Amino acid sequence: MTEASEGAQSEVIMPRLGLTMQEGTIVQWSKPQGGWVNAGEVICTIETEKITHEIEAPRSGYLQILQPEGTTVTVGAVIARILAQREAMAVGAARAVEAPGPGPEREAQKLPGGVPAAVPVPRQEAGGGDGRGRLEISPVALRMAQDLGLPLERIQGSGPRGRIHKADVLRAWQQLREGSSQPAAVDAVSTAPSPAAMAPVQSVASLPAYDREPLTPMRRRIAEHMLSSLQETAQLTLMMEADVTQTLQLRAELQQEQQRLGGAGITITHLLIKMVALALHEHRRLNAALVGDEIRLYREINIGVATALEDGLLVPVIRGADRKSLAEISAELQSLAEQARSGRLPPDALAGATFTITNLGAQGVDYFTPILPRGQGAVLGVGRVCEQVRAGAEGFQRYSRLGLSLTFDHRLVDGEPAARFLARVKYLLEHPWTLLLSAH
Amino acid sequence: MAEKRYVRAVNEALCEEMERDPAVCLLGVDVGAPGGPFGATRGLQERFGPQRVRDTPISEAAVVGLAIGAATLGLRPVVEIMFMDFLALVMDQLVNQAAKMRYMTGGQAKLPLVVRTQTGYRDSAGPQHAQSLEAWLTHVPGLKVVMPSGPCEAKGLLKAAIRDDNPVIVVENRTLYALAEEVPDDDYVLPLERAAIKREGRDVTIASIGVMVREALAAAEALAGRGISCEVIDLRSANPLDLQTVRTSLEKTNRLVIAHSATRCGGVGAELAAALGEEAFYMLDAPIMRVGAAFAPIPFSPPLERAIVPDRAAIIAAVERVLAP
Question: In this predicted structure, what is the pLDDT of residue A181?
């Protein structure tokens, strides 16, 4: 547990759980604000792009929560304090949070009325010390301006002290859409807005309606990875079919043996992991990445296996797949997938892949164009197995076909060597007993 | 469909449910031969006999305690407590027994109890006979609280309350008892936890409950003449609150006025405003305003009473404020 002690209190910070972790989201506080916690008790659940993790109290004391559930903070940020005395709470809170607004009024003393609410927003790029440095805007107006991408300083507010209301945002947006070069402004600034002026502008109403769904850390990370992968590498996909009749037969026999031994089931994915690992031995350029101005040929063969989750995917890694037996690969992958689906995968189990296999066969896909994971030079997409008929010298013949799609980074490997690697995988699938020859 | 007075709609709901289910019985002071303190049970003892429509002594705690026992053993008692103010005498039974029974038995005991009571002012009923104390009840998990705003709600919500397996307090309004409107004759049942939009509008949402729905509709009508379009919501249930209906309306209007006849302090409107502050803050274009009674006892004196209790003028003033904050 990471903590920093400051006399009679300890700070709880967002820990760094993996080398690539930049920020984490507070999913749940399991202890109430101000409640007593004992050292070692779980106080909070956090979520990174990869895993959920429980944070324990570094010491006993009163819990002061500084970041509410649902917020995302950077690694190292203070998310709570454990205080020796409950009285310290008020002082700490005042320091931690921005000064609160005017105190609650006493009901008996005042009839309807009171202080108008407005959200103080730091003025963006406002020309230096104008004395106030804040502009006033209603909550819905702020949200709309952000949704429409309208800079706040381009909106003139019609409320008291220039407070921006929804109608002002709509007006500014309409003027922008009509291509008016004048700054968005209302002429009757001083007059109170009439209800008619508040009526929604037609063109906004024509925007398609939508439901808002905030990005989970995992979804955001996937989005960043996919986009940067396509922007930063030169991807090309080769497609090839393999006759897996023999492999399926071998699998059936291995399956029987595993049942007798009480081991985990063997799937075509397990066989593919092994075959790809062996093929990579001979084709090291496919187990590599171009970083900066050098090509890194990885010494280890670590195969990542994309595993779909409810919203998103995780890629558990089989390290040293070329040195592991099929039974080992099967058992390890089953355990990793279970941990991944329950969100309890240790961060290390997701890092360090040098090549990735992704399978869409279950959904009936034959071929596709997988996207390269960051830091890898190639990824193999596996399609479905289907029964086919082939015209041969002895007449028509049935066989089982598997679709393979290999995406590689053309910056570090050319089409011809990539095709030879793919052909090697195809050869192993069609002559699976050659696996017996492998030294490992 | 025929035009019926509020009190008649209550009577019809009781009668239909007693016909429908022999477990339904009535308990309360004068609910028998006199037909209830306000006439809501008129003719029912004659029809269903003194076994099922029982007059009780003036001992509210004992009556509700009796009803809780009866409900636990399978009856569906409907108790009438003459004035809501007298619920103070029943709080231990309601809060510590009725509300807890299902939880403490792990759901083994059902508690199909209905307590009918009423509130209302503008008739010099004074400090001890005119309070709206629903917020006392909404603070307690396990009690449902509905406040019918008219004859249709009086019938539909009471029938739903009798069929519900949890304790439900139905707060009627005696100043509306003489109000008449078309009420369906058939088996008319309204959901207990859903608000209704009584009037559509686009500028301001007025979320109201009980008698204040009538005031809100009158205010909306007056404001419509000035080009201000109000959406009027009848919350119907004080607990649970139908936040979704209010949120959906706020998405359109971005402005909210809440109106109830209880004091504003710690009222149902405070809960609604706080919940929306948490969930719907970024829908607001103006502060949420509450309309309610002043934080003072209700006076006997008619002019003083008028000065303290909320009315359509207070709602209009609140709408004006949220439109030009």
Answer: 47
User: Does any domain span residue B188?
Assistant: no
Complex-level ipTM: 0.72
- Average pLDDT score over chain A: 80
Residues of B in contact with A146 (CB under 8 A): none
CA angle (A220 as vertex; A214, A222 as ends), nearest 5: 140
Dihedral, CA of residue A310, residue A313, residue A319 and residue A323, to nearest 10: 80
For residues A382 and A268, what is the distance between their CA atoms, to the nearest angstrom?
A: 10
For A167, name the nearest residue in chain B, comparing CA atoms only. Answer: B285
What are φ and ψ of residue A74, in 5° steps? Answer: -80, 160
Which of A325, A248, A282, A285 is closest to A414 using CA atoms?
A285
Do A149 and A235 share a domain, yes or no?
A: no
Please return the burial class of A72, using the count of CB atoms within 10 Å of its CB with bins 0-12, 13-18 and 19+: buried
CB contact under 8 A, B285 and A195: no
Q: CATH number for the domain including A305?
A: 3.30.559.10
Query: Is B102 in the same domain as B170?
Result: yes
DSSP state of A207: S
Length of chain B: 325
pLDDT by residue (tens digit) across B11-33? 999 999 999 999 999 999 999 99
Number of domains in chain A: 3
B212 falls within a domain: yes
B215 and B173 fall within a common domain: no
Domain that holds residue B254: 196-323
Nearest residue in B to A146, CA atom: B282
Among the partner residues B281, B287, B290, nearest to A116 by beta-carbon distance: B287
**What is the gyration radius of the CA atoms in chain A, in angstroms?**
30
Together in a domain, A399 and A269: yes
Q: Are residues A330 and A245 in the same domain?
A: yes
How many residues are recorded in chain A?
440
Domain span at residue A361 reads 218-437
User: pLDDT digit string (tens) for A3-61?
Assistant: 444 456 788 988 888 777 888 888 888 888 888 888 888 899 888 877 788 888 888 88
Beta-strand ranges (E) seen in B202-255 are: 204-208, 230-234, 237-239
CA distance B231 to chain A (A): 14
At B288, is the secondary structure helix, strand, or coil? coil
Reading the block at residue A54, the tokens are 């429980």
CA distance B218 to B198: 12
Query: What's the CA gap between B204 and B210, in Å, rounded?
Result: 19
CATH number at residue B289: 3.40.50.920
Q: Is A110 part of any domain?
A: no
